Model the fold of this input.
Amino acid sequence: DAKTTQPPSMDCAEGRAANLPCNHSTISGNEYVYWYRQIHSQGPQYIIHGLKNNETNEMASLIITEDRKSSTLILPHATLRDTAVYYCIVRANFGNEKLTFGTGTRLTIIP
Amino acid sequence: DSGVTQTPKHLITATGQRVTLRCSPRSGDLSVYWYQQSLDQGLQFLIHYYNGEERAKGNILERFSAQQFPDLHSELNLSSLELGDSALYFCASSIRTGMNTEAFFGQGTRLTVV
Done:
């Protein structure tokens, strides 16, 4: 699996957009970018994933650069409940479906 | 609620003992994954089952074993427990194997070995 690099921590003001970056410069052409988050010690929660096009769902938007070497997760209007560790994961193609979690970014939403 | 159910939520046991953790995947999901999360190791992949068959193994100790039953629920068996086995154990499920399938996690079992 391609390795990912994320900042260890970030702060964001409540109500503002939280932009979480991720570098995955060794990503292969058929590998997807997944984002999960873990609130305190709860089970990781799926947020969004994409291959090369930008994606949006009810939780977040995912912007992937044209060269696919980096991506940004955007939480458009952060709330205190978005305080969590966010994991950017690049998932290998067939034959290896495990999710390899790194250390993630600890996002703190400031009131 | 992810739809993945793990039991028990908490478990305290002594060193040398054996425990069984149970996971019920989301309805219709054929794949089950087990992860271990300890303070100093982060989330570590243990093992993956698909429709009753083992598909992939991570850094799972020989003292640990798992299986997936015909009704698709899975059990993780931990034996000869050591203090270092204290951790959160998560189960995740997805509808199928292959890329482009998100996995949904249960709330975990917190194992404390004393």
Notes: The two ends of chain A are 37 Å apart (CA to CA). Chain A is about 0% helix and 45% strand.
